[in-house]
TrEMBL record:
GO cellular component: plasma membrane
Highest taxon listed in the record's lineage: Bacteria
CDD domains for this protein: FeoB
Cited PANTHER family: FE(2+) TRANSPORTER FEOB (PTHR43185:SF1), FERROUS IRON TRANSPORT PROTEIN B (PTHR43185)
Keyword Disulfide bond: no
Record keywords, A-Z: Membrane, Transmembrane, Transmembrane helix
Span of domain FeoB-type G: 6-174
N-terminal signal peptide: none
Organism annotation: Tibeticola sediminis
Pfam families: FeoB_C, FeoB_N, Gate
Keyword set includes Transport: no
GO molecular function: ferrous iron transmembrane transporter activity; GTP binding
Protein name: Ferrous iron transport protein B
Length: 638
């Protein structure tokens, strides 16, 4: 074998058995791990260097129950293993990962993969849980019965993959020369035989497979007679037709309360830090373009976005907790019926839920949806789920226009408004789904959800810590990268050309950006937007939180005295009417101000048309909803 080409390992296993956790341990990556099926939807590659210096290319794959794919993400796994993937050579070793607490289900896939003719290794993951549940596995018997080596791992322990790494370190390599496995014709795989009229064969094959699994289990595994029923007890409450939905609402509600009430202190600290830096710059530099660039462009722009870091982290703290505990698929189960009422199934729930973090991974997660029309509709409504980039905008406007009061002594009014905005997004998404599904004449309420409910688990602190760190890094990088760059550009466009002699308005009014803003304001005046908002919306097309930074810069440049715009909230509160504030809030429920989302839609569906349709309908909705809000608020004395 040529030394330049590392041996290729593919990780194969059922959904949620811990493949990505092992992948991260082997390669030092930080791919997303969570306690529900369908987290990984595309192939991810990493490099493992063993202690003796051997190098492997490791491939993490979407989880599958069988080599007969149902959805796009599962087909990826099948194609790579059979060598049918256009730009992926067949692996030299298949590392089958099995959840040791669910061997009955997991071993079927191992047996299905055996005829592929690629060397295999079985990894028993979740050994910590298996031991805790009193499951004893006779490894030698298992190796003998399966005819492949077996090692044990714990995906959530720092050293959990040590035995696997040791095995790979000593592996002599494939018997056949590397890469010599020819692509497998599909029909040679009993598992994916697909000939007409062979349903009976199919059934017999499945039963044979199951009998073989039973035989192996009885030879190698002893399970305690009474399996623990803790999960069932929890589920009796969580999945209860009445308590279940109430609990879900309470959880979501508390999350948004926390976003406001916990964040106040750290936000103040950041604000004061930014103001202190601005003060230092202000004192150190003489009045002029450089000082204006730094204070009005960089600090007022990027600083006013940075302030929202604590709220983003609090939101993600809860998202990560929910993801790791095993609660999410239960919520999907609860929502299967209401979603069926608009023609979708609970399968759309996880992609939509991911969209609360960001529509981009949410749209990618729709690959787990088998029905093409359902997938399309889910993609179209994903941007209506309130992503974390809207949080700075919402928080700014709510902070400025909604009084910070406790209702009935405990209910945070600002948190309540935020909760309602999220609900508004969800409700309009459901309405749009209903409209999109109707002309198809789809049988409403037909979908039944078949979904595995994972075991409840205590979230791992290490994982939580990593997750939050990752989020903070992404947010700070965007503030220091794209937002900063756009703010400098905006500052330049807002500072030149200079104001004419005897000007009555602040200089920005006469600048390039001011002219653009005033032009746009003609169009946006009916929904209550002034020229400053109109300016901010233009760079805000790139990403939503940019608009907050842009408002910071615009108002810093509009200020007659040299105040910093980190106190943007009070400024807009005094200069805008309540109707304008509410109208902008509602605008952000709908407006598709995110280039990455549109690009992702284009990539997932392969065409620009749906992406442009999406942008069009969302802008139309935003305009209409803001128009109504603005005029209603004015009538009611806003
Ligand atoms: N207790 C325990 N938990 C584990 C172990 N390995 C993984 N987990 C947890 O199991 C869940 C699933 O892990 P993932 O790595 O996302 O599973 P996956 O196989 O990649 O799942 P898909 O990408 O959906 O196919 C996560 O909550 C992990 O933290 C383990 O050995 N012990
Ligand atoms: Mg995974």
């Amino acid at each position: 074998m040529s030394p330049a080409e590392p041996l290729r390992i593919a990780l194969l296993g059922n959904p949620n058995c811990g493949k990505t956790a092992i992948f991260n341990l082997l390669t030092g990556s930080r791919q997303k791990v969570a306690n529900y099926a369908g987290v990984t939807v595309e192939r991810k590659e990493g490099v493992l260097r063993t202690p003796s210096g051997r190098v492997y290319a490791v491939l993490d794959l979407p989880g599958v129950y069988s080599l007969r794919p149902l959805s796009a993400d599962e087909a990826v796994t099948r194609d790579i293993l059979t060598g049918r993937h256009p730009d992926e050579p067949r692996p030299d070793l298949i590392v089958c990962i099995a959840d040791a607490t669910h061997l009955r289900l997991n071993l079927r896939l191992v047996l299905e993969a055996r005829p592929l003719g690629v060397p295999m290794l079985l990894v028993l993951n979740m050994m910590d849980l298996a031991r805790a549940q009193g499951i004893t596995i006779d490894r030698e018997a298992l190796e003998r019965e399966l005819g492949i080596p077996v090692v044990e791992t714990i995906g959530v322990a720092r050293d959990g993959a040590a035995e696997l790494v040791g095995w790979l370190d000593r592996w002599p390599g494939p018997a056949r020369p590397q890469g010599a496995h020819p692509p497998l014709p599909l029909h040679s795989l009993t598992a994916i035989q697909d000939v007409d009229g062979q349903a009976e064969d199919e059934l017999r094959r499945a039963m044979d497979l199951q009998a073989e699994v039973r035989r192996i289990l009885s030879a190698a595994v002893v399970e305690p007679a009474q399996r623990p029923s803790r999960d069932e007890a929890i589920d009796r409450f969580v999945l209860h037709p009445v308590f279940g939905p109430v609990l879900l609402l309470v959880i979501l509600f508390l999350v948004f309360q926390a976003v406001f009430s916990w964040a106040a202190l750290p936000m103040d600290a950041i604000k004061q830090g930014v103001e202190a830096v601005a003060g230092v710059v202000q004192g150190a530099l003489p009045e002029g373009p450089l000082r204006s660039l730094l204070t009005d462009g960089v600090i007022a722009g990027a600083g006013s976005v940075l302030v929202f870091l604590p709220q983003i982290l609090i939101l993600f703290f809860f998202i990560l907790l929910l993801e790791d505990s095993g609660y999410l698929p239960r919520a999907a189960f609860l929502l299967d019926r209401p979603m069926a009422a608009v023609g979708l199934s609970g399968r759309s729930f996880i992609p939509l839920l991911s969209s609360f973090a960001c529509a981009v991974p949410g749209i990618m997660a729709t690959r787990t949806i088998t029905d093409a029309r359902d997938r399309f509709v889910t993609i179209m409504i994903a941007p209506l789920m309130t992503c974390s980039a809207r949080l700075p905008v919402y928080a700014l406007l709510i902070g400025a226009f909604i009084p910070s009061r406790k209702l009935a002594g405990w209910l945070d009014l600002q948190g309540l408004v935020l909760f309602l905005l999220y609900l508004g997004g969800i409700a309009s998404a459901m309405a749009v789904a209903w409209v999109l599904k109707r002309p198809q004449g789809d049988a409403v309420g037909a979908g039944t959800l078949m979904m595995e409910l994972p075991a409840y688990r205590w979230p791992s602190l290490r994982h939580l810590g990593y997750g939050l760190y990752e989020r903070a890094r992404i947010f700070i990088r965007s503030v220091g990268g794209i937002i900063l760059a756009l703010m400098v550009l905006l500052w330049a466009l807002s500072s030149y050309p200079a104001a004419p002699l005897g000007a009555e308005q602040p200089a920005i009014y006469y600048s390039f950006a001011g002219r653009i803003g005033r032009g746009l304001a003609e169009l946006l005046a009916p929904i209550g937007f002034n020229w400053q908002i109109s300016i901010a919306l233009v760079p805000g097309l790139a990403a939503r939180e940019v608009a907050v930074g842009a408002l910071g810069t615009v108002y810093a440049l509009s200020a007659q005295d040299a105040g910093t715009a980190v106190s943007l909230g009070p400024i807009i509160a005094s200069q805008w009417s309540l109707a304008t504030g509410l109208s902008l809030l509602v605008w952000y429920v709908f407006a598709p101000q995110c280039v990455s989302t549109l690009v992702t839609v284009r990539r997932e569906l392969g065409r620009w048309r749906p992406a442009l349709t999406m942008a069009g309908y969302l802008f139309a909705l935003a305009y209409a909803a803001s128009f109504v809000t603005y005029h209603l608020a004015k009538v009611w004395g806003g």
